[in-house]
Backbone:
């Protein structure tokens, strides 16, 4: 039996996931492997580096810092989440990510990004915490229209949510048969077509595969949610989700809302703990 953790993205809805994994760390719950998309990678990776509270801490500290996330950063750097500030200053200096612990932890960790060439999901093992691994973190969370494509080994990538928002099937194919899925939308949520597609057809005309991925994303997303629900009902995965819409977007400068979203994740995790422990134990 191999246990897995699957974490959805969703920008600052990821504070819900941060709350969930902090409870897991407090309870000593570990997994053999994990996969995340976008915020699911960036915030979720703290469970492998064993850094309880790090995600909510630095998000509260820098929520109103224009270098972290702002249209100023977008205009100045081409990324709404400033690359140098987020992936250099915070990562190595201001609230260091424990790369040594992350690399030594036997938990296998994957990031999902979207190829700008094909529009399809690309999954990479980022378990060592190398500089290239951190590029995959950034690629996975680089939202189209407000981020530059990330170049890795001569190819470019954008947000993994465009192609696979919740990579449960991927982890199942890797042989993980006891999977906990952390969603950031409530049960029966239905994604609607992206209103930004017309803008994308102009701004991203050199990336037709990305435009197509944006056009059909809601269809793929809704199929994935239906699949997860079927797997949950069949006892093939365990799902933790918010009871209602979190009311927070991809970007948030409101510290009270960040805390409220984080606490909602903690509450959901605590409520799920007894049943989840039985599930992970194969009972």
Residues:
């Amino acid at each position: 039996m191999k246990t897995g953790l699957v974490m959805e993205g969703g920008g600052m809805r990821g504070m819900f996931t941060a709350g969930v994994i902090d409870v897991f760390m407090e309870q000593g719950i570990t997994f053999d492997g994990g996969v995340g998309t976008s915020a699911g990678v960036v915030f979720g990776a703290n469970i492998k580096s064993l850094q309880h509270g790090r995600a909510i801490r630095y998000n509260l500290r820098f929520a109103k810092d224009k270098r972290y996330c702002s249209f100023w950063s977008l205009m100045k750097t081409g990324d709404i989440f400033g690359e140098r500030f987020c992936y250099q200053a915070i990562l190595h200096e201001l609230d260091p990510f424990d790369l040594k612990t992350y690399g030594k932890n036997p938990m296998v960790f994957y990031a999902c990004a979207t190829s700008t060439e094909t529009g399809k999901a690309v999954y990479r093992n980022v378990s060592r915490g190398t500089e290239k691994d951190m590029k995959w973190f950034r690629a996975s969370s680089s939202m189209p229209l407000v981020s530059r494509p990330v170049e890795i080994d001569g190819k470019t990538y954008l947000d993994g949510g465009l192609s696979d928002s919740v990579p449960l099937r991927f982890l199942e194919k890797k042989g993980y048969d006891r999977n906990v899925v952390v969603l950031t939308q409530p049960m029966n949520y239905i994604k609607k077509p992206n209103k930004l597609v017309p803008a994308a057809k102009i701004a991203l005309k050199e990336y037709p595969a990305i435009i197509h991925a944006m056009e059909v994303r809601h269809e793929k997303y809704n199929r994935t949610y239906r699949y997860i629900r079927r797997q949950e009902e069949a006892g093939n995965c365990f799902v933790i989700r918010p009871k209602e819409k979190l009311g927070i977007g991809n970007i948030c400068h409101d510290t009270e809302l960040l805390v409220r979203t984080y606490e909602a994740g903690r509450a959901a995790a605590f409520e799920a703990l007894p049943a989840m422990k039985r599930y992970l134990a194969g009972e």
Notes: The chain has a mean pLDDT of 97. The radius of gyration is 17 Å. The beta strands are 3-7, 33-37, 108-115, 121-125, 150-152, 155-159, 178-182, 237-240. The longest strand covers residues 108-115.
